[in-house]
Amino acid sequence: MRTVLRRPDFRLLFGGLLASMTAESILLLALAIWVKDLTGSSGLAGATIFAVIAPMMLAPLVGWFVDRYPRRPFFVAANVVTAALLTPLFTVRDAGDVWVVYLVAALYGLSSITLGAALSGLIRELVPVELLAEANGLLQTVRQGMRLIGPLAGAALYAALGGWALAGIGTVGFLTAAAVVTALPTPRQMPPTVRLRWPAELGAGLRHLAGEPALRRALLGYGLGSLVMGFSESLIFAYVDQGLNRDAAFVGVLVTVQGVGGLLGGLCSPALIRRLGEVGTLAAGVAFFSPAALALAYPDIRLGFAAVLLAGVSIPLTMVGLHTLIQRRTPPALVGRVAAATQAVVSGPQAFSIGAGALLVGFLDYRVLFALVGLATLVAGTYLWRGRHLSTPTGTRRPKPTRPVLPAPRRPAEDAASRSGAHRSSPR
């Protein structure tokens, strides 16, 4: 990761993203806490997260819009607009203003899709192909690190200063990201592409995902895993309550351990991509979730710590493998649409899985459900692993150094014959 950080353009982008990722990590959980405080309802608080996820259905339209404009100025403008979208939070006073929080959450979710699609294309323009895994791995490492401190910091700031302070910090974070990225040098211009009619343009990202074998297998395998991986969001509470006989607050300890695993996974992901390729790394990430889920089916605190640590490792492996595969296997002019479509295809099963898990845990033993998650992710990981040949490990793509070819020394007899021939052929 040091190699990619030596690039001045990526260092600037990374500095801007630190500011925006800090704002993101502080805001998401704090908005739900704010709604809980205003209404006293846990259901209404959970609906805040749903409001953020709901705009995923607009992902193809967002990707098409992103791909129509130059990456850097669009990314700057998107950060400024995101900062402006947070300003209505300053008007929230009581429970009657909860609709403002929901509106901001939905617009923020739409902005998150836009920023993600624009960032994927911007990284593809700034970073050489051989360093994409390092760049994505570094960003995922920082993102996982933010999960350790961001939500707790957001909750503490809300308790100390109120929701207005969160809105102010979020606004400053996105404006800082816009200001830093403005200083980026203008990336090289991409060749113009043939413009199709807008219905065809909207579906271009999905068609590329369906037509590219590596991307198709990656999304099918990861989608299968996502259909059950979200169960753990609800099952972990039953594990702590019924299995460990501890208070729900102990979930925070497990989340911290999972964050440590996320840091390890982010740091290891570039090396794993060089060794296994993008699809192989994605397979490892999904497969790592299997023993983690199976271990959580048995209530033991030592096994629990090991399980959530392994689950934390799996998250950045899947994200870095998938994002790097998209950037390497997608024409630059399509990156925004493909990234947005992927986000929608992946987030849909995840959202369904979280809801289904919350419903099923009321009817079935959590241990049975964890066992089901373990078996399903093992099947999904195996399916991905069998397709690892579709993406060659990056370490095999580097050209081998070649030795300079020197002319073979001539023997004395050959030199004499050559001189004799030259003498005979010379004009008198």
Overall description:
This protein is mainly α. It is built from 17 helices and no strands. The longest helix is centred in the middle third of the chain and has 47 residues, at 250-296.
What distance lies between the first and last C-alpha atoms, to the nearest angstrom?
Answer: 70 Å
Number of strands: 0
Percentage of residues in strands? under 5%
How big is the Rg? 26 Å
Judging from the principal axes of the Cα atoms, what is the shape? globular
Structural class: mainly alpha
Order of helices and strands: HHHHHHHHHHHHHHHHH
Q: Stretches where pLDDT falls below 50 for ≥5 residues?
A: 397-408, 412-428
Helix content: over 70%
Reported for the largest beta sheet, the result is:
none
